[in-house]
Write a structure and sequence with these properties.
By secondary structure, the chain is an all-beta fold. Helix content is about 0%, strand content about 55%. The protein is globular, with a radius of gyration of 13 Å.
Length: about 110
């Protein structure tokens, strides 16, 4: 089992920044990619960003490229998502993802 807990969500105005954090724990946690997904009201959950175990490989959905940065600290079993220049369309519940495991999510609300 792996437990994922997100933090760092909140409400900001357009153009603002937030940093999401996901802490992983559990005996099954190992050297795999981690990622972030989001789900806006009335929409399906979508991929946002992912990072390889080494941190050398990252991948982003086009709509966040240049604004979001994913990183990880393997010593702390933590993955971060730095979100800058936030837009109202970034409003969603953001979920941390690791293999088949999901965190409970953290709400991000961006007002215009």
């Amino acid at each position: 089992q792996v437990q994922l807990v997100e933090s760092g969500g909140g409400s900001v105005q357009a153009g603002g920044s937030l940093r999401l954090s996901c802490a992983a724990s559990g005996r099954a946690f190992g050297a795999y990619d981690m990622g972030w997904f989001r789900q806006a009201p009335g929409k399906e959950r979508e991929f946002v960003a992912a990072i390889s175990w080494s941190g050398a490989g990252t991948h982003y959905i086009d709509s966040v490229k240049g604004r979001f940065t994913i990183s990880r600290d393997n010593a702390k079993n933590t993955v971060l998502l730095q979100m800058n220049s936030l837009k109202p369309e970034d409003t969603a519940v953001y979920y941390c993802h690791y293999t088949q495991y999901w965190g409970p999510g953290t709400q991000v609300t961006v007002s215009s």
